[in-house]
Structures are given as structure tokens and as C-alpha cells.
Amino acid sequence: MKSPIIAWTAAALAIGLQAPAHADTTLRMFVSSQGSPGIHRKIADLYEQRNPGIKIEIELGGATSELQAQYLNTVLSSRDPSLDVLILDIIRPAQFSAAGWISPLGDAAAAAPMLEDYIKAYADANTVDGKLVAMPAHADALLLYYRKDLLDKYGLPVPKTWTELAETARKILAGEGDPNLQGMSFQGKAIEGAVCTFLLPYWSAGHDLTKNGEFSFDKDGAVAAFNVWKSLVDEGIAKKNISEVGTDDTRREFQAGKAVFASLWGYGWSNFQGEDAAVRGKVGVATLPAVDGGKVVSCLGGWEWAVSAYSRHQEEAKKLVTFLSGAEATKIKAIEASYLPPRTALYTDPDVQNAMPWIESARAVVESAIPRPVTPRYNEVSEIIRTLFNAAIGGSMSPEDAAAQMDARLRRILR
Ligand code: GLC
């Protein structure tokens, strides 16, 4: 059997990712400002040291996935060559590839040995029509963060269902009597994260948006999913203004000790361990609860590196992408910024385990997490789900009306 390194190098060569760098090339790398963007500079510095003649400039995108997508849509639809390497949310490679905005990195079959090092969902999301169109940057899934100290204080176990979570939160809130403490923070704002918020209880109850390529929306299931979240608001467990709470609001609230539970992505962890975090040393991580009688699910997140089709430095950009998605860069991101690794071997790496003691259980969560629909029309799917979910939980539309509209509008796209 070939060693993984030899197999990887052979595959990388086969798809042309190992082309030599030319002197004095500046590569502009677009990254998300969510999480710990500083880590990208550190990795870029390392790359510059190893590759004389290459300079990397970093351009910080907006804090939310859809703000970044809007910006990239503008840049790429005007064929602007100023960006070379782009970080893309897992939901985007299909659309960007269909639009011709990102360069194929090679033939997926030739890259197969290399892709075996990654969690399968990422290899799948980055393969479009037999071509590899992006490489994994980091894995992600929605996780349940909880206040270990408060659960211990009241002798309560980590809740396994939404009903148990509500009961647990109620007991702790009553016991603490702190007006600044909320039971649960989650994303209700009409942003990409709200798509996942909606889908969690919907999927947990066994419903899908499509089945075997056919549209299979369940209206009653959608009403029930809205009500899981809405009841947390109505019962005073989540904030009244939940329809304005975005991803990083949840991170800030939980970090400041203002929430017992939070539904949030992997990047929360390193923030919660920071010197200035009120919750440092008091946080546990678990899978999100299921609906009563339902299955345990999470929403698959993650980010991918792609090369802009308009970059004037195609070979250099591809080589940089190989480095960014490689073992060294993804390990640094895991250890220093708790970005979940896309490479399976890192889940048993002692340094990564030391930085994230819950990492082995996170692998099971990521591997069983459900992807949002993979379609070039994902933007429309997202817009429908997030705005109607936001309206239903914010009270500007009844759950029944929101579900009926979701059904009618999604049907036109996913049919
Ligand atoms: C996280 C996930 C990404 C998701 C986004 C929503 O960054 O990794 O996939 O779309 O959050 O806010």
C-alpha cells in the first residue's frame, strides 16, 4: 500500500496542484471575518516564508455568509481579477461552479486518493460534475454549548430533547433569578444560520426538503419546527427579540455568561476559552437535542477554498489552496481557533485533542450532520427559509402561513 503522503502527492500532481510558484506574485485571499480571521494571516505568513516571491494579501469579507456571498457575486459577475483565492461556505461551490466563477482544480477521480483524507461530506460538496472545484478549509456543525457549572450546581444532566432543554433551562433560570441570564440563545435573525436553526427540529422529526431528488416538504412538520423555537421564546427561555439575534450575537451572549445554552458553530469554543471570557472553564459541548421521539441531527456547516476563475495567477493560487487545506494549516486552525478539522486524522491528534477535549465526539456530529440542499439555486432556497422562519418566530406571520408560503415557494425551486 502506498503511504498516504505518496498517494496524496501523486494525486496532487495528477491534478496539477503542485505547479512551481513564480517570483514576485501577490495573491489576494478573501476570508470570512466571522470567527478568528487573524489565524489566516498567521498561516499566510508561514506560506510566504516557505515560498519566497509569493506575497499574500488578505481581504476580510463580511461577518455573515450571505454578506460575503453578495460581495463575491458583485466581484465575480464583473469578472474582476483582484481576488485569487476565496473562502466559500459549503453551500456555495455548486452555485459558483455553475456560474463559472471558480476554476476547476482537477478531475475528481484523479483527486480521489487525496480526498480520502477528508470527511466525505466535504469531498462531496466540492465535487461538481466529476470535477473537484474547491478544497476543504474547515469542517463545521451546529453544536449545543452548555454551562457545565450551572448544570452541575442544580444536579441536572445535559438535555437530550428540546422538552428536556426547556425544563432544565426553566429550573436554572428560576434558581438563579438573574434577569440578565437567558435559557437559550440561537439564531433567529434572517441570516444563513437561521436556515440551519429551522432545519434542526424539522430534520429531527424525520422530514426532508427533498427525497430521491423529489421535493418532499412537510408543511405540518415545518409548523412543528417553528413551534419548537417559538415556544422557547413564548416561555421566556429565549429572548423576546430573538428575530434580531445573529450568529455572533449568540457567541457574545454566551461568552459573557448571559445564556445557559447556545446553539452555535465550532468557532465558539476557542472564544469561550479566552482569558476575558466570563465562561472560561465552565463550558460543555454536546450534540443538539432531538424533538420528542425524533432523531439526533445536526446541520452540516464548513468552508471551502476555491480559486477565482478570473485570477491571473491560477497555478500559484491552486498551490496555495493545496497548502491551506493541508494537514499543517488545518491543524493550526483547529488548535488556535477551534475550527473543526476537515481531515479525519486530526480528530485523534493529541495536540488537537488537548485544545478541544470534545473533538472526538465532534467527529461523529460532523459525520452524521445533514447537508443543506446542494443546488445552484441555493441562494433562493436560503432566502425563502430564513425570511419565513424569521417571520414565524418573530410573530409577524403565523407558523401556518409561513409554512404554507415556504411550501409554495420552495416547490418552484426544488421540484
Ligand atoms: C458557519 C457554518 C456555515 C454556515 C454559517 C451560517 O460558518 O460553517 O456553513 O452557513 O455558519 O451562519
From TrEMBL:
This protein's name: Multiple sugar transport system substrate-binding protein
Recorded family membership: Belongs to the bacterial solute-binding protein 1 family.
UniProt organism field: Shinella granuli
Predominant location category: periplasm
A GO cellular component entry from the record: periplasmic space
Annotated keywords: Periplasm, Signal, Sugar transport, Transport
Signal peptide: 1-23
SUPFAM superfamilies for this protein: Periplasmic binding protein-like II
Subcellular location(s) per record: Periplasm
One Pfam short name: SBP_bac_1
